[in-house]
Design goal:
50% of the residues lie in helices and 7% in strands. By secondary structure, the chain is of the alpha+beta class. The chain has two domains: 4-265 and 407-450, Orthogonal Bundle (2-methylcitrate dehydratase PrpD); 270-394, 60s Ribosomal Protein L30, Chain: A (2-Layer Sandwich). α2 (22-41) packs antiparallel against α22.
């Protein structure tokens, strides 16, 4: 019997540069640009410095840093930096963050192995497709079990991406997927105190995928039933829901989900973003914070444990990282400042009395008809002190498939992130141009330009 991993492996082994659709290639370029900008933005953050302290020297690039590192270390640092501010891409239906896992994994592997841009491209597109599809098999069940889907499915997808870049045969790719299943990890206990561990999940998954693929290339054998087996990935990490593998393998190779990857306009939790848009609409209508008596948001039950409860903590988040996963804080700071960028999550802003006063007025009500996680929507109903009510809805995730970010806005985001990370305009321009040529280069020596 052909297992799910073997089906995936056969497809991965068949993907070549000329089989990739144009919109998937363009998405890969955007992902590379977005990830690079995020790595620069976070390069001076303490959690990145701490990650650098745990890696060894080698030949691979950590974006924005001097020197070179081993492939596993470079993947860990780049993935941690890219995901660290929660400003990286997401996928509706998962949700998972594919770019911060797959781009660092394939980039480091290709540098280690001396591969060219065509293998980089094949690995990135294949890995993103896998990660997004893996997240659709048992929606919400991984979060419900206390695990981070990006971390769990990221390790397996990164192994497939690395196998694609290396050109491994199907049997070795199936083993790589099986090996990665035992490397998958990542709990969401960071939510309790707003600590850093979620930040490393993408980097950990990236380096795990490289290691799994290299071990499989060397002959190490992993379980073929890693996905559907009685002790497989979904039984272990998503036990509350029977897996449905049709979204994973049903039309694999015929319909690509890569072009549906969403690029975030705000550096915070994915499902918070439409609510920020509603808060900005309220502000644009001329309402002042002092005018507001109460705000109630219709929300999906599945988002409450991470983004709304405990409500007292969400009203006054204990750390700047915890603030990124507080819908009341994100709405309040967006309303107050008229924007939500990296600066809105400083230690100063999370203690601002005016922001916290408005956040304390925001609460939620469960909407049983909410279609999360298939779609991410926002809503607020504000009652003003004079008794009038204002209501706003955001029907989709801005930056997602139904409302993609214009290329100009994505490029502006990159330039803003580069400046935030201390790069000069000249350095940023060089990196900005790289994705247009990198995937066609016979070598990846140009990645050295991404070092400090």
């Amino acid at each position: 019997m052909t297992t799910v991993a073997e089906t995936l492996a056969a497809w991965v082994a068949s993907v070549e540069r000329d089989t990739l659709p144009d919109d998937a290639v363009e998405t890969a370029r955007k992902l590379f640009l977005d990830v690079a900008g995020l790595c620069i933005a976070a390069r001076r953050e303490p959690y990145v410095a701490a990650s650098l302290a745990a890696v060894d020297g080698g030949v691979c690039t950590a974006v924005g840093h001097a020197g070179s590192f081993d492939a596993f270390g470079a993947a860990l640092v780049n993935g941690t930096a890219a995901h660290g501010e929660d400003f990286d891409d997401t996928f509706e239906g998962g949700p998972v963050h594919s770019g911060a896992v797959i781009v660092p994994a394939v980039m480091a592997l290709c540098e280690r192995e001396g591969l060219g841009g065509d293998r980089l491209l094949v690995g990135v597109v294949t890995g993103v497709e896998l990660l997004c599809r893996l997240s659709l098999v048992a929606p919400m069940a991984t979060h419900n079990a206390g695990f981070h889907p990006t971390a769990i499915f990221g390790a397996v997808a990164a192994a497939g991406a690395a196998g694609a870049a290396l050109g491994l045969p199907p049997a070795a790719i199936a083993s790589a997927l099986g090996i990665a299943g035992s490397m998958a990890s990542g709990i969401i206990e960071y939510l309790s105190e707003g600590t850093w561990t979620k930040r490393m999940h993408a980097g950990w998954a990236a380096q795990s995928g490289i290691r799994a693929a290299l071990m499989a290339r060397g002959g190490f054998v992993g379980p073929r039933t890693v996905l559907e087996g009685p002790n497989g990935l979904y039984r272990a990490f998503a036990p509350s829901r029977a897996p449905d593998f049709s979204p994973l393998v049903g039309d694999l190779g015929h319909r690509w989900v890569v072009p549906k990857v969403a690029f975030k306009p705000y550096p915070c939790g994915t499902m918070v973003q439409p609510f920020i848009d509603c808060a900005l609409k309220l502000r644009a209508d001329g309402v002042q914070a002092d005018d507001v008596r109460d705000i109630v948001c219709d929300v999906a039950q599945g988002t409450v444990p991470r983004l709304w409860e405990p409500l007292a903590s969400k009203h006054r988040p204990p750390t700047s990282y915890a603030a990124k996963f507080s819908t009341p804080f994100c709405m309040a700071v967006g309303f107050t400042d008229g924007r939500v960028g990296l600066a809105q999550f400083s230690e100063h802003r999370i203690h601002d009395a005016a922001v916290l006063a408005l956040a304390s007025k925001i609460r939620y009500a469960i909407n049983p008809a909410d279609e999360y996680p298939r779609t991410f929507t926002g809503h607020l109903r504000a009652v003003l002190r004079d008794g009038r009510a204002r209501e706003y809805r955001q029907p989709c995730l801005r930056g997602g498939a139904e409302a993609p970010l214009p290329l100009g806005e994505l490029e502006s985001k990159f330039m803003d992130n580069a400046r935030y990370g201390g790069w000069t305009a000249a350095q940023a321009e060089r990196l900005h141009a790289a994705p247009q040529r990198l995937f066609t280069q016979p070598t990846l020596h140009a990645l050295k330009e991404f070092r400090e």
